[in-house]
Amino acid sequence: MISISRRQFLAAASATAVTSMTSPSFAASANDELRVVVIGVNSIGNTHLNGFPKVPGVKVVGACDVDSAALGKRAEEFEKKFGYTLKKYDDLRRVYDDPNVDAVVLAVPNHWHGLGTVWGCQAGKDVYTEKPCSHNIWEAGQMEKAAKKYDRIVQIGIQRRSFTHLQEFFKEVQDGVLGKVMHVKGLYLTRRDSIGRPTSPPKPLPTVNHDLWCGPAPTKLERAKYHYDWHWFWDYGNAELGNNGPHILDLCRWSIGAEEFPTSVSSIGGRYAWDDNGQTPNTHILRYEYATAPITFEIRDLPTETGKKDTCKYMGLSYGIVVEGEDATYVGFDTGKVIDKSGKTIREISGNTGTDGGRQLHRENFAKAVRSRKTSDLNCSVKTGHLSTALCHLGNISHRVGKPIGLNSLSEQVAQQPLLTDAAGRMLEHLSANGVDLPSASVQMGETLAINPKTETFVSSEQANQLLRREYRAPYVVPENV
Ligand SMILES: NC(=O)c1ccc[n+]([C@@H]2O[C@H](COP(=O)([O-])OP(=O)(O)OC[C@H]3O[C@@H](n4cnc5c(N)ncnc54)[C@H](O)[C@@H]3O)[C@@H](O)[C@H]2O)c1
């Protein structure tokens, strides 16, 4: 049970608005039940509804969603499975007002991660925020400040950070087990479909509070499918780079212990083969410069060739990383292997990945840190999540301030950069196999942008610096002073 004094204190808190005072931290006793509400339950939030009750000492007490259909469905399923009724909230501010809630899981679209986390911290809740850490670089800093100021535990949902075998192996990589690392390559080679081009203006689902769904972002609606497809519009999502990129780029950065921003970023990308109104690239190559080793990242959302269902592979991987050392190479994702120069496997890297793609271990880690009240116990603090997510934002900014060039001049443009020459060659072959007419198509040649890792800003592009943050739609504004 929670201590009496804490309950009394919490009961006194305002029930009408997001409280701007902190409540006492979750009691340290291992016997106290941690009361969790999942916010956003359509898709990944549902895995949290099912996973958090299995964490010892955690009770899921409620669910919140702006879509009454998703909320009703998930609450009913939960009751059938776990045998008790969840409290339902249609506005996250009411969750934050509720003194009977200790922690929240933010499984809402990206444009809500910053404000949802800051409000949660201000209201005295601990927060598990899904990846990407933030929708833009500036608001991640505000999240970090809020967590510190209100002494909150904030975990970012980049769950492979909770794999002990990777924690141990990447330490070895940093200590030189592969020899000097020359290059780290990230890969996210998947297959998606066109989202279509609505012929008449789409309408929000009748069950959704669209104003609250949009929150900090504009309310215009350009997608036919309401949920999930927001990833492909800059106002709400962050492209495939900010969707699955945080997982992959986190592994890249973690493997070499790169604990700050890179010194430069470049990008090459476009949206091909689909006749739709999505805004973000479905084919993207990134390069990040670090003193330790450069990181490149290849993203493809198109299949191996037109009409096929399979996805591309590189060294046997569709998703994952290749760490090229002078002596040996690591190839892996959740688990992996070390190969020698002849390609022979000399070591397997594996361990406990838990259930639900690693999320269960990550939930357990969150609960542990909430009890200990130590951010240092978290496997993915805001700082860690921010550094990995920032790589996605930096790449998207390079893309957005870039200029279109003819695809057939791409090879010439990257001729002086061997790592990009290889990747661009693969990209051209792949696009051709997907029916793209190379001589007539164009590609967005992102600007190569120098970055100051200390200030986390671009050195000389005002246009790029403008994209470090967004305009917030009142009253959904991430405050300057958290
Ligand atoms: N860690 C992982 O492996 C992983 C996997 C998938 C998704 N995610 C992340 O989880 C988040 C959600 O993804 P999804 O695929 O479930 O998206 P989704 O669009 O399917 O579902 C989002 C839900 O949030 C609700 N919502 C929107 N604004 C809300 C608000 N203000 N208050 C309450 N509910 C609100 C929506 O109505 C919807 O039900 C994204 O940020 C995504 O990047 C993480």
Automatic annotation (TrEMBL):
It holds the Pfam family GFO_IDH_MocA. Residues 1-27 form the signal peptide. One of its GO terms (molecular function) is nucleotide binding. It comes from the Bacteria. Residues 34-157 form the Gfo/Idh/MocA-like oxidoreductase N-terminal domain. Residues 171-265 form the Gfo/Idh/MocA-like oxidoreductase bacterial type C-terminal domain. InterPro entries: Gfo/Idh/MocA-like_OxRdtase_N (IPR000683), Gfo/Idh/MocA_oxidrdct_glycsds (IPR050463), Gfo/Idh/MocA_OxRdtase_bact_C (IPR043906), NAD(P)-bd_dom_sf (IPR036291), TAT_signal (IPR006311). Keywords: Signal. PANTHER family: BCDNA.GH03377, OXIDOREDUCTASE FAMILY PROTEIN. This is Dehydrogenase. It comes from Blastopirellula marina.
